[in-house]
Design a protein that fits this description.
Blueprint lengths: L1 H19 L2 H12 L9 E10 L4 E9 L3 E8 L2 E7 L4 E5 L2 E4 L2 H16 L10 E2 L3 E5 L2 E10 L2 E8 L5 E8 L2 E13 L2 E10 L4 E11 L22 H19 L2 E12 L5 E14 L2 E9 L2 E2 L2 H32 L10 H15 E11 L2 E10 L8 H6 L2 E8 L4 E9 L3 E3 L5 E3 L4 E9 L3 E15 L3 E16 L26 H7 L1
Antiparallel strand pairs: 1-2, 1-14, 2-3, 3-4, 4-5, 5-6, 7-9, 8-9, 9-10, 10-11, 11-12, 12-13, 13-14, 15-16, 15-27, 16-17, 17-18, 19-20, 20-21, 21-22, 22-25, 23-24, 24-26, 25-26, 26-27
Helix pairs in contact: 4-6, 5-8
């Protein structure tokens, strides 16, 4: 009995010792152990070495890191060539499955790894990386402290030696399963501690890497991080010409979009200071086009349908909104008839707004890595973009666009954007920060799907934002909106607004007079 009590006491002391060391304290000790302030002078690192497999095959290993977030790793063993890279705008990978741009959580994780590797744990909060509570564990019979790092939906776990505080293991999840990377044989290079022995373990194989050279601040060729060009690739079109065709085609696309109703599922996540979800809400709505606008009718919240009273109130709100839209449309028509179409204000035309968002990106950005890719079974043109140096924005909108970096995918044949990823490379303020201040790394993703072999329509929108409002309130949110159940729907120019009906009328045959009735029909 005394032995059991003694063992429990040791267990409690063990747990308390681990919890007493916060993540910040462990990271600070790592910074000192790895080289202290000297590390701040390291802007780039190139590592080369020899790889050996479990069946005694040998090859070469190369890793190039350049601050603030560029990282490329290459492995070459005989005919096998594998590369993984984040270049500040997009993530790409070359392996047995071919060359491709990474999407979703896979891309987010590659970027997180790049930020941790190149930054060496500096400016974590600026990069919106959140270390979790340390856990005491062991690695190869050595006491270690494990910290999981979160950014958006990506996570990487790092293990710090409990005595030296150097990183001895990295653990991350891939599509093929858990990948474990072990670091040892640390040596000082330019007074910075670097591992000279690396072991990579996956479910399929194990690679042992012996580093033969580590170079700091070597002149880095930025082209090394760009998406590779393939010799067999067909000639690429001029990006500006393609984008102009997209803008010219947009009015036709808008007309097609107004023929479809659809379902919208919006999920909002709010995060605490540790990057953990503290609150979430899901809203499901039915969307119907009315006179060039999309009217939203809420049908459920957090998986529960609205009550009878809530739905009646929502239907009355929808009726009122439709009436206001139709009245506004009538005013515009009278204005056009009285003044002529050529005198309609520029901000009322879609093409002018598109110039800010689409062609504006080209004027204000440096376009790189134009390539052909497969996206959802369709061939598309993709390219990366980042702010162009020396460009002076003409207005507030251009000031915002000039801070964006990311990737765009275009269906050349359909003349439509099928996916857009963009993030802010630096923060920006509204009214000098009095109204709001948006943090860098705030990001947006928009994606479309082809419907009825006719038009690409929105399928996904994701916004990750970190901001401060009125100098006081800080918030970190992730809003994911999914669009589905597209159905062809047409209405005449005449609308008859009626009160919501209690019973379900016959299905719409394509000649519905009242858009609010369409809401009640579903």
């Amino acid at each position: 009995m005394k032995k059991i009590i003694f063992a429990l006491s040791l267990l409690i002391i063990f747990a308390l010792t681990a919890s007493a060391q916060s993540a910040d304290k462990i990271i600070d000790r790592y910074k000192k152990a790895v080289g202290g302030d000297v590390v701040k002078k390291i802007k780039s690192t190139t590592i080369t070495g020899i790889i050996k497999t479990t069946d005694d095959q040998t090859g070469r290993f190369t890793q190039q890191a350049s601050a603030p977030d560029r990282l490329r790793t290459d492995i070459e063993i005989g005919q096998l060539k594998a590369s993984e890279c984040y270049n500040g705008k997009s993530a790409w990978r070359l392996d047995a499955a071919g060359l491709r741009t990474l999407l979703g959580n896979e891309a987010k994780q590659v970027r997180l790894n790049a930020l941790l590797t190149t930054g060496r744990f500096r400016d974590l909060s600026k990069s919106r990386i959140y270390p979790q509570t340390p856990v005491k564990t062991s690695v190869d019979n050595r006491e270690a402290l494990a910290i999981e790092f979160l950014r958006e939906n990506a996570k990487i776990k790092l293990y710090f030696d409990a005595k030296t505080y150097l990183v001895i293991k990295r653990e991350r999840e891939t599509l093929a399963g858990i990948e474990e990377t072990f670091f040892s044989d640390y040596r000082a290079v330019d007074r910075v501690m670097e591992p000279f022995a690396i072991k990579i373990k996956t479910a399929a194989n194990e690679l042992t890497i012996t580093i033969d050279k580590v170079e700091h601040n070597r002149l880095t060729d930025e082209s090394a991080f760009l998406y590779p060009k393939l010799d067999s690739e067909r000639p690429l079109p001029d990006v500006e010409a393609v984008m102009k065709a997209v803008v010219a085609n947009q009015e036709k696309i808008e007309e097609l979009r107004e023929k479809y109703t659809f379902k919208q599922i919006e999920t909002e996540y709010e995060y605490n200071d540790k990057g953990q979800v503290k609150k979430s809400e899901e809203r499901v709505s039915e969307i119907t086009p009315v006179a060039g606008r999309f009217v939203e009718r809420l049908v459920s919240k957090n998986g529960k349908p609205l009550s009878e009273k809530e739905q009646a109130d929502e239907d009355r709100r929808v009726q009122k909104e439709i009436q206001e839209i139709l009245e506004e449309k009538e005013k515009r028509e009278r204005k056009r008839l009285g003044e002529g179409r050529d005198r309609v204000k520029a901000e009322d035309t879609y093409e002018e707004r598109s110039n800010f968002t689409i062609l504006g990106i080209l004027r204000l950005s440096e376009v790189t890595s134009v390539r052909r890719e497969q996206f959802r079974g369709h061939e598309v043109i993709a390219f990366d973009f980042e702010p162009k140096k020396g460009i002076k924005p003409k207005n507030r909108i251009e000031s915002v666009v000039n801070k964006l970096a990311g990737t765009m995918w275009i269906d050349e044949e359909a003349k439509q954007i099928v996916r857009l990823e963009a993030r802010f490379v630096e923060g920006f303020k509204f009214a000098g920060g009095l109204l709001a201040s948006v943090s860098p790394s705030t990001a947006v993703v928009m994606e479309q799907q082809k419907v009825g072999d006719e038009v690409w329509l929105p399928s996904l929108a994701e916004v990750n934002i970190s901001a401060r409002v009125f100098l006081l309130a800080k918030f970190k949110k992730n809003v994911v909106t999914r669009y589905s159940d597209y159905k062809k729907y047409s209405i005449d120019n005449q609308y008859e607004l009626q009160k919501p009906k209690a019973e379900k009328p016959p299905e719409n045959d394509g000649s519905a007079k009242n858009p609010s009735d369409e809401f009640n029909n579903r």
